[in-house]
Amino acid sequence: MTGQSISLTASGAATRGRKRKNIRSEQPLQASQPAKAQAAPKAARPAGIPAGWRVIAAKEFADHISSIRFLVLTVILTLAAGAAVYSTAGLLKGVAPDASDQPSLFLYLFFYSPQNSPGFTFVFFVSLLAPLLGIAFGFDGVNGERSEGTLPRLVSQPIHRDDVINGKFVAGLAAISVILVAIIAVVGAIGVLQLGILPSIDEVLRLAVWVVLAVFYVGLWLAIALLYSVVFRRAATSALVSIGIWLVLTTFAGFLVGIIAGFVSPLGDNTAQEQINNISTQRNLSLISPSQLFTEATKATLNPAIQSFDINALIRVANEPQAYPLSQLSIEQSLLVVWPQFVGLIALTSGAFAVAYVSFMRQEVRA
């Protein structure tokens, strides 16, 4: 009995010893597990600006590039611009060998107007048709997601809510930039083949500045279309309203400006001063239209001979040509001439997108 009690006591002590060892060996593991759990989120936490808008922009850009509307609009704009440049190049081709020393001859392809088709230039077609790019890429940006039921799931992802509209706007601008660069490349190739001359460095810089200017101009219509896609539930409604505003500001703006200028600066006795005042009023009122801002900025950017748009300055130059000799402006001087129009387009684009941004952020999208 005594031997058995001693053996049981010894076995119990050994068992308790093993349990203590197991407990002591488990304590460091249990203590180390919370430390690893606390350290894991710090390692997984992204550094810098969240990339949610970049993910959405990449997805939207891929959808734009592979869509039918992208192909159709690219073909339409390229054909219209290419036809205008081809007809202009045909007229310049005969004088190109004799005018090889003429500065900026290559740029005449973009703004020179043939006598048989006055006004139908590359600048005209781009200012008239390019807004369709912004409208096409933005009219269903938000309400299209809502109608398909994907907008609540999109905003429920671990991204900021404003990444949705920011990504869509950036993707639209990227698609517009691709189309404009492609059009410039095609038009430039036509000019090189027709005229047999290569553009200079100054001409290439002017074309690059024009592309940036055109992106802001089309970006304004993209922002307007995005705004209406937020305000209206149906994509068809936002498209119709956007197209209506485009028609008013591009097609009927000149007619409306002429009527208003007739009341502000009437032509009573039809004197020279009254005509000057009326023309000045029409020009100032027409700057409300984005197409007028873009047209003036384009002309001064691509044509280095334009030094001012002020009617009084142009009259002084016409009356005293010896006192104001014509000269070719450098790219820096041309930028100073178009700076007000450039800033106006940037302000309009930023303002339209800001309104669309605020409207989207204040709208209930999970319902």
Characterization of the model:
- By secondary structure, the chain is mainly α.
- The longest helix is centred in the first third of the chain and has 43 residues, at 2-44.
- The chain contains 16 helices and no strands.
- 32% of the residues are buried.
- Structural category: mainly alpha
Q: What composes the largest sheet?
A: none
Average residue-wise pLDDT? 79
Strand content: under 5%
Q: Portion of residues in helices?
A: over 70%
Number of extended strands: 0
Question: How would you sum up the global shape?
Answer: globular
Low-pLDDT stretches? 1-11, 19-46
Oligomeric category: single chain
Radius of gyration: 33 Å
**Total of helices:** 16
- End-to-end distance, in Å? 81 Å
Report the order of strands and helices.
HHHHHHHHHHHHHHHH
Question: What's the SSE blueprint?
Answer:
Blueprint: H1 2-44, H2 52-65, H3 68-93, H4 108-111, H5 122-129, H6 131-138, H7 143-148, H8 151-155, H9 162-195, H10 201-231, H11 235-250, H12 253-264, H13 272-286, H14 290-302, H15 311-319, H16 331-361
Helix pairs in contact: 2-9, 3-5, 3-9, 5-14, 6-9, 6-10, 6-11, 9-10, 9-16, 10-11, 10-14, 10-16, 12-13, 14-16
Please tag this protein with its features.
single chain, 367 residues, mainly alpha, 16 helices, 0% strand, globular, disordered N terminus
